[in-house]
Specification:
Radius of gyration: 14 Å
Order of helices and strands: HHEHEEHHH
Number of domains: 1
Distance between the termini: 26 Å
Helix content: 40-55%
Largest sheet: 3 strands, mixed
CATH class: Alpha Beta
Number of helices: 6
CATH architecture: 2-Layer Sandwich
Shape: globular
Length: 122
């Protein structure tokens, strides 16, 4: 899939988020990248054999104080190569992109992987 189409799927996934989340999704840059870097893989301590599909880098809402202002944007990276490798069709890519976007935005709002598992989301 070309980058333009993949980025469109990312944009659509963000736009499909419920309005209460979109209203609080400020100062966040969502960027499509080909693959995670070695540094990004190390920073997440992803175990061998696990594929990193997205990454949230920033200060979650739950860890911000009243003095949190004039900060650089939080960043969400969506990795096109690993997502495409896992999927067999554009529909699967669209669904996986939606899952990854929701997962990384959940981190932006302060939910951990354990929180998401406990809630039965993933």
């Amino acid at each position: 899939m070309d980058r333009e189409r993949f980025e469109e799927l990312v944009r659509l996934a963000v736009e499909e988020m419920p309005q209460p989340f979109l209203q609080r999704l400020v100062n966040v840059d969502i960027e499509v990248r080909d693959w995670p870097t070695q540094e990004e893989l190390r920073s997440t301590r992803v175990p061998s054999g696990v594929t990193l599909l997205g990454l949230y880098v920033g200060v979650p809402h739950t860890r911000r104080s009243h003095g949190y202002n004039l900060a650089l944007p939080d960043r969400i990276f969506i990795y096109q190569g690993p997502i495409e490798r896992l999927c067999r069709s554009e529909d699967e890519v669209r669904d996986r992109v939606r899952q990854v976007i929701q997962h990384e935005i959940a981190h932006h709002f302060g939910l951990t992987d354990a929180d998401l598992r406990d809630a039965g989301v993933y």
